[in-house]
Amino acid sequence: MKIKTHPLRLFSEWFQEEITLSKVQIPSAVCLSTNGIDGFPNARFVSFKELHNDTFVVTGPLNSRKGIEIENNAKVALTFWWTETERQIRIQGVATKISGQLADHYFNERDVYSQAVSLICEQGKAIDNLERLEKQVLEKVAQKTKISRPKNWGGYAITPIRMEFMEFKKTRFHDRKCYQKDNDTWILSQIQP
Length: 193
Ligand SMILES: Cc1cc2nc3c(=O)[nH]c(=O)nc-3n(C[C@H](O)[C@H](O)[C@H](O)COP(=O)(O)O)c2cc1C
Fold this sequence. Notes:
It contains 5 helices and 8 strands, in the order αβββαββαααβββ. With 193 residues, the protein is of the alpha+beta class. The longest helix has 15 residues, at 7-21. The mean pLDDT is 96. Flavin mononucleotide (FMN) is lined by residues 26, 29, 42, 44-47, 58-61, 64-66, 123-124.
């Protein structure tokens, strides 16, 4: 099938349409799926930052479970569901670590409370006393000093190899368009609902 719009441009158009209409607090939430080390697929929501050089950027602690899983297998999936426009986008791709400079940029965009949480908390580790940890975070915020990006905090740039755009239809005859990368060319197929 002939491609009228490049899938990354189509993604940007759909995303823009959704965020213009959306009233939810975090319209950029996306489900990031990784291949679990124990063989179970593992999925969690993260915040999609932006399209950067044709890659999808997500950020967070690199030594978290997702970080360890990506280190072990860089093949990941991103799934968006947008309620206002009733569209789903499924992306499969390969994650590579973003540069320290780019990670600094995203870290500096975070509010000071989120920065303090990233500095003090060890995401995913068991904790006996959550109140003590929160107190440490609040004390750090109260110091009003610049918080630099901790070494374990960074992000991934996900290069898509397959992207499926689905428009939900009340009739259940959903419109599904699948773009698959073949070397440097995107191949488009219409797939059945
Ligand atoms: C809407 C939403 C956005 C989130 N954004 C992020 C994010 O950008 N980065 C992140 O590390 N965790 C984010 N989280 C928390 C993750 O869902 C998850 O709890 C955390 O990354 C730990 O996952 P892991 O143990 O598999 O590494 C978000 C959660 C929600 C519900």
